Amino acid sequence: MSRYRKRTIATNDTLRDDDIFEKRGVEIVEQYTTPKLSNPSQKELNSISYTEHYYVAGQRMFKLSQQYYGDQQYWYIIARFNNKPTEAQIEDGEVLKIPTNLQQALEVLG
After folding, report:
1. pLDDT at 4
2. DSSP bridge pairs for 67
3. Backbone angles phi, psi at 80, to 5 degrees
4. Neighbours of 42 (CB within 10 A)
5. Could you give the CA distance from residue 15 to residue 26 in angstroms, rounded to a whole number?
6. Residue 54, H or E segment
7. How far apart are CA 87 and CA 64, in angstroms?
8. Which residues contact 35 (CB under 8 A, 6 or more apart)?
9. Which pLDDT does position 15 carry in this prediction?
10. CA 98 from chain center: how many Å?
11. pTM listed for this prediction
């Protein structure tokens, strides 16, 4: 399931005259709107079962996503569940919680 499933597409037809789009014959640009993320409650977070993973310096969340879910696109679920937006915030040896029920994690965190 794509993380874009809840996002709407906006149309921008107010391009400037000197814009590169006009030079290329583009009159309308469609783009995803900015998502409005909300922090799940502690009760919602506690409802998600997880397994523990000991982080080793140099690991990447997209590779952990591939390892645990078979698809690297769900790295942001691991990041949001641990409140660690990038690997730079993770210490070597730190325990990461990897949600085991991806569908449930997507409903709460997606």
Report:
1. 63
2. none
3. -70, -40
4. 8
5. 9
6. strand 50-54
7. 11
8. 6, 7
9. 62
10. 14
11. 0.70
Task: Specify the 3-state DSSP secondary structure of 18.
Answer: coil
Better-predicted residue by pLDDT, 52 or 35: 52
Tell me which residue of 94, 99, 84 sits closest to 57, measured CA to CA. Answer: 94
31 contacts 4 by C-beta, under 8 angstroms: no
For 4-26, write each residue's pLDDT tens digit. 666 777 777 766 666 677 777 87
**Rg, Å, the chain Cα set:** 18
Measured torsion, CA atoms of residues 67, 69, 70, 72, in degrees rounded to the nearest 10: -80
What are the structural domains, with CATH classification, of the chain? Answer: 1-36 (no CATH), 42-109 (3.10.350)
**pLDDT digits over 40-66, tens only?**
889 999 999 999 999 999 999 999 999
Tokens (6 digits) for 95:
């325990």
Specify the DSSP element, H or E, that contains 50. Answer: strand 50-54
